[in-house]
Design a protein that fits this description.
It is built from twelve helices and 16 strands. A hairpin with a 4-residue loop joins β15 and β16.
């Protein structure tokens, strides 16, 4: 793949400093494909100290420009580190470096161009998901770089192929199938799929291969991502003529390596997880489902949404009970039973009613309201469209909807967990197999392998 024979083992890219140049360079040096994240990657000063991404602009647009500058500088920094660590030309079995980006990140096209322009020959492929990245093919082809779209269904790939990818088929390195029920981070569940009813991956990947065969892509690999732990559990896939050439992406296991930049507190927490501790939720400001560790951060978001009632500005239908809210005690109308619930929440200290875009009220305490409002004001446009702040990367600079207080600032919490190591009060993305760290004998007694040791272990089937 990406112009070289490699082990069909891919490091999954994890954003905001979690997959960096050191971890991806080591993975490539071990013979697989290493993937660093191009999503707000870290950069360093002359002394090697991390440069905190502090925003000084007075407006969202000014801060957005700062974010793009940070992202390009950080991406270039990590690409160079990965390339140097991989050994590239001196290592005939290694040296393939990929960059992972979210298509729905703010300024995605500008950031891609900015990084690829300055890292020619260092980045060999780009993986891209979280949205429908039609333009990724054209951008990558213009730099002679392979592209690896991340999809969760044959239907999604068919739409991408018909609209754009058929024009740049020679640069299609592989198609990454990401299981929308098992993968960590943002998940590609569509409106017709039930988050509570997972589907087996084989029929879905078989449908993807059948489609690819009709498009002349029978020899283009499919990379299985999400739910992969032991390769021996996938032996029926390897060499299966129904699936054709396949590879496997590991997103969660690389977290637990010497080269992984996550904190010791994060690694220790992974070793304590139990089955069911990963929560498929719908709080992300991207609008996608996502999978993360069920910690106080996520539990607070759950409780916040549970303290929610519909309202109207006039007495309509069942909304007959007036409820005074806000500093001026202006009345809104709710159902009588919802008024009783609201009064109970207020009595419990959740005195602040906040309006959502869906004509509902949520009830939070006063410190939480201050935090939500401050985070919304501080928005720097890290997403192309944000439910939480209502930022959008369009001419109007807004989604046109009210900011949604049921969500959160994803940039803030991912920076916090990456650099402060707060694993309880931050979003902690993980795949649904993360609980297996506790039972896998490879990690007995808190053992943390090097990337090389992990890759060697994976190739044995374990």
């Amino acid at each position: 793949m990406s112009g070289r024979e490699v082990l069909p083992i891919v490091e999954g890219g994890k954003g905001i400093s979690v997959s960096n140049g050191e971890s991806s360079g080591a993975w490539a040096a071990a013979g697989g494909i290493g993937t660093f994240s191009g999503v707000n990657a870290d950069s360093y000063d002359a002394d090697g100290n991390h440069i905190a991404q502090i925003y000084k602009g007075r407006t969202r647009q000014e801060r957005h420009e700062e974010l793009i500058a940070y992202a390009i500088k950080g991406g270039v920094t990590q690409a160079k580190t990965a390339y140097e660590m991989s050994g590239d030309s001196s290592n005939k079995y290694g040296g393939r470096i990929h960059m992972n980006v979210l298509w729905e990140m703010g300024g995605a096209e500008r950031i891609l161009h900015g990084i690829l322009e300055q890292t020619k020959g260092m980045v060999h492929g780009v993986t891209c998901g979280a949205g429908m990245p039609y333009k990724i093919a054209e951008i990558c082809a213009s730099y002679g770089v392979y592209y690896y779209p991340i999809v969760s269904s044959a239907r999604a790939f068919n739409a991408l192929w018909k609209r754009a990818y058929h024009k740049f088929s020679e640069w299609l390195g592989a198609v990454v199938y990401e299981d929308p029920w098992l993968a960590g981070g943002h998940n590609g569940l569509s409106n017709v799929e039930d988050p509570l009813k997972p589907e087996a991956p084989f029929p879905r990947v078989k449908a993807l291969r059948d489609l690819m065969n009709t498009l002349g892509l029978g020899e283009t690999p499919i990379i299985m991502a999400g739910g992969v732990w032991f390769l021996r559990e996938w032996k029926d896939w390897i060499g299966n003529p129904e699936l054709g050439p396949v590879g496997f992406q590991f997103g969660t296991r690389p977290l637990m390596t010497k080269e992984s930049p996550i904190s010791d507190a994060w690694k220790k927490r992974l070793l304590t997880l139990k089955k069911g501790d990963i929560y498929l939720n719908h709080f992300s400001p991207t609008g996608f489902y996502s999978s993360a560790v069920k910690n106080p951060f996520l539990l607070e978001l759950t409780a916040r949404s549970e303290r929610q009632i519909p309202y109207s500005l006039e007495a309509v239908g069942e909304h007959t009970a007036e409820l005074p809210i806000g500093p001026r005690s202006r009345g809104v109308f709710v159902a009588p039973h919802d008024k009783e619930r609201a009064q109970a929440w207020i009595a419990a200290g959740f005195t602040e009613a906040m309006r959502t875009p869906d004509s509902t009220l949520i009830f939070v305490d006063e410190p939480r309201k201050r935090e939500i409002l401050a985070d919304q004001v501080a928005c720097m446009g890290c997403l192309s469209a944000c439910h939480f702040s209502n930022w959008a990367g369009n001419e109007a600079g807004t989604t046109g909807r009210k900011p949604d207080p049921r969500s959160f600032c994803i940039q803030k919490t991912l920076q916090n967990i990456s650099h402060d190591g707060d694993v309880e009060n931050s979003l902690m993305f993980a795949g649904h197999n993360a609980y297996r760290f506790a039972s896998d004998p490879f990690y007995a007694n808190g053992f943390i392998p090097t990337v090389k040791q992990l890759v060697e272990r994976i190739t044995t089937g374990d």
